[in-house]
């Protein structure tokens, strides 16, 4: 056994822990289908949000971890529930009045309000695939519409007819009394209106695999359950899809966790082994509200990628998946810098430590080198004091600080400089609030200014940090009040970078001029 596999079999990193649970399924015999199947689901009722991306990313990490500890081939399917009826019009799409006319129709039968695809479902599926392709995921895309209409689902649908009473018994236990009176696991799609109907069944016929029902106008219809004429309610659909595909692993949000026993039992009734699950905590916006496709709150994938790299988003998604996380713009700079800290650490780690490092899972074991010689938070502060509106302005300072760096040799730093300018313009500049120093702070700033004006030592982070520290040490208790004053008086922010590093980047003479402006009341 290789050192890598041996370490992976012991690793406490959550992707390996989950991979080992999947591997346990096949300790005795390999899968009859010849592979292990990982699945993720997507409900295209609205534009794909960042939580959907997180689900695919995390499943990909577990899939890779499985491939490290096992030689069994793997597949990953991204399944879109695009045959679902559109129950409400999302608030963040155009042509709302038009969409109202198509309520309850399958999403792939609703016209695309953006006018770019054959249907609203197709549009949202295309957006999802574009997002996933941006990150280089390896997956097979399945459309529920195609799955039902092509006949791939027919055998399981027939089995659902044969096991109708057993499945209904599972479902009825979970429903309120009034819902039980009209509930059926089957939802017919009306042959004339094309709408998904929530109506009781008059008959479920296991001889010819048909259902009979009355529509909302009281007319009786009989339809075959096969060929896309009928779809399953969403809870039975979960378990039936697992049975039809032979799914071995699927993760979903905490809001599904109470339904897990239902999904599992239906899968078993339909003749297949239930998959392994992983329940993750939900993403919240800055107000602590769950992010949703229909309301469009929180950050979208495109918005994150406007201000930071794909890898920084992947890093944020890796961390503590079973802890609820607030997902708003202020988390971006921290994610960028922590990602690069982990990249730098990776080079000197042993195998065990590397397998516990998030960047191993983000990059599938092929971990690149970091060229971020200036932290992202520092670039933001530099953009702020320099009022930079293009990355070339930042490079003027970066080259002096790190002469070996250039946009060509340090592409991640170059990209970060561009992101920093955009982030500064949109989030920092509108909210900068400078304040005047107190008498004690003014005294300290004057001394710092004088020491820096006469400084002729090395322009290095540690040497300059020592000067800043010495000036504040005898005046401020706790010392963090001194650094807080520097940020608020000189940078117009409540927090900031290690100040010695900032001086080295911005320049000693430039920092002296900045302090002079602050003392003269010329900032802000």
UniProtKB/TrEMBL annotation:
<dbReference type="GO" id="GO:0005737">
    <property type="term" value="C:cytoplasm"/>
</dbReference>
<dbReference type="InterPro" id="IPR020751">
    <property type="entry name" value="aa-tRNA-synth_I_codon-bd_sub2"/>
</dbReference>
<dbReference type="InterPro" id="IPR014729">
    <property type="entry name" value="Rossmann-like_a/b/a_fold"/>
</dbReference>
<dbReference type="InterPro" id="IPR002904">
    <property type="entry name" value="Lys-tRNA-ligase"/>
</dbReference>
<keyword id="KW-0547">Nucleotide-binding</keyword>
<dbReference type="GO" id="GO:0000049">
    <property type="term" value="F:tRNA binding"/>
</dbReference>
<dbReference type="InterPro" id="IPR008925">
    <property type="entry name" value="aa_tRNA-synth_I_cd-bd_sf"/>
</dbReference>
<dbReference type="GO" id="GO:0006430">
    <property type="term" value="P:lysyl-tRNA aminoacylation"/>
</dbReference>
<keyword id="KW-0436">Ligase</keyword>
<dbReference type="InterPro" id="IPR001412">
    <property type="entry name" value="aa-tRNA-synth_I_CS"/>
</dbReference>
<keyword id="KW-0067">ATP-binding</keyword>
<dbReference type="GO" id="GO:0004824">
    <property type="term" value="F:lysine-tRNA ligase activity"/>
</dbReference>
<comment type="similarity">
    <text>Belongs to the class-I aminoacyl-tRNA synthetase family.</text>
</comment>
<feature type="short sequence motif" description="'HIGH' region">
    <location>
        <begin position="44"/>
        <end position="52"/>
    </location>
</feature>
<feature type="binding site">
    <location>
        <position position="293"/>
    </location>
    <ligand>
        <name>ATP</name>
    </ligand>
</feature>
<feature type="short sequence motif" description="'KMSKS' region">
    <location>
        <begin position="290"/>
        <end position="294"/>
    </location>
</feature>
<dbReference type="Pfam" id="PF01921">
    <property type="entry name" value="tRNA-synt_1f"/>
</dbReference>
<keyword id="KW-0648">Protein biosynthesis</keyword>
<dbReference type="GO" id="GO:0005524">
    <property type="term" value="F:ATP binding"/>
</dbReference>
<keyword id="KW-0030">Aminoacyl-tRNA synthetase</keyword>
<keyword id="KW-0963">Cytoplasm</keyword>
<protein>
    <recommendedName>
        <fullName>Lysine--tRNA ligase</fullName>
        <ecNumber>6.1.1.6</ecNumber>
    </recommendedName>
</protein>
């Amino acid at each position: 056994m290789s050192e890598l596999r041996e370490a992976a079999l012991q690793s406490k990193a959550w992707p390996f822990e989950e991979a080992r649970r999947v591997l346990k399924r096949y300790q005795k015999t390999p899968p009859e289908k010849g592979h292990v199947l990982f699945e993720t689901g997507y409900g295209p009722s609205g534009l794909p949000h960042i939580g959907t991306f997180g689900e695919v990313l995390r499943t990909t990490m577990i899939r890779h971890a499985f491939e490290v500890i096992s030689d069994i081939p793997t597949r990953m399917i991204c399944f879109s529930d695009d045959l679902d009826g559109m129950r409400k019009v999302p608030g963040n799409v155009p042509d709302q009045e038009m969409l109202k006319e198509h309520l309850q129709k399958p999403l792939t039968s609703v016209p695309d309000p953006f006018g770019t695809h054959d249907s609203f479902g197709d549009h949202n599926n295309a957006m999802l695939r574009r997002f996933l392709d941006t990150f280089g995921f390896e997956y097979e895309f399945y459309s529920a519409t195609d799955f039902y209409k092509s006949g791939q689902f027919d055998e399981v649908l027939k089995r659902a007819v044969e096991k109708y009473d057993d499945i209904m018994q599972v479902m009825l236990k979970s429903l309120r009394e009034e819902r039980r009176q009209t509930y059926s696991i089957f939802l017919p799609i009306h042959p004339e209106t094309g709408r998904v109907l929530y109506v009781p069944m008059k008959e479920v016929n296991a001889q010819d695999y048909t259902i009979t029902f009355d529509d909302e106008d009281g007319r009786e219809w009989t339809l075959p359950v096969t060929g896309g004429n009928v779809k399953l309610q969403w809870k039975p659909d979960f378990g039936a899809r697992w049975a039809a595909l032979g799914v071995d692993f699927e993760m979903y949000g905490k809001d599904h966790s109470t339904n897990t026993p239902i999904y599992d039992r239906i899968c078993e009734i339909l003749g297949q082994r239930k998959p392994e699950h992983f329940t993750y905590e939900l993403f919240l916006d800055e107000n602590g509200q769950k992010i949703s496709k229909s309301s469009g709150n929180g950050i979208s994938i495109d918005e994150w990628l406007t201000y930071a790299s794909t890898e920084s988003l992947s890093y944020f998604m890796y961390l503590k998946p079973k802890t609820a996380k607030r997902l708003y713009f202020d988390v971006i700079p921290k994610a960028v810098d922590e990602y690069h800290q982990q990249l730098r650490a990776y080079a000197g780690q042993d195998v065990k430590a590397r397998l516990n490092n998030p960047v191993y899972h983000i990059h599938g074991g092929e971990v690149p080198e970091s060229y971020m010689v200036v932290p992202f938070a520092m670039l933001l502060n530099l953009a702020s004091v320099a009022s930079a509106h293009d990355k070339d302005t930042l490079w003027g300072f970066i080259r002096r600080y790190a002469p070996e760096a250039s946009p060509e040799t340090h592409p991640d730093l170059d990209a970060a400089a561009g992101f920093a300018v955009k982030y500064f313009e949109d989030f920092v500049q509108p909210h900068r609030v400078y304040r005047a120093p107190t008498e004690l702070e003014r005294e300290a700033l004057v001394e710092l200014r004088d020491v820096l004006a006469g400084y002729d030592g090395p322009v290095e982070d540690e040497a300059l940090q020592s000067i800043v520290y010495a000036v504040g040490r005898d005046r401020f208790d706790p010392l963090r009040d001194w650094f807080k004053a520097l940020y608020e008086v000189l940078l117009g922010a409540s927090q900031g970078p290690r100040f010695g590093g900032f001086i080295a980047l911005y320049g000693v003479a430039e920092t002296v001029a900045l302090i002079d402006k602050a003392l003269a009341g010329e900032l802000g």
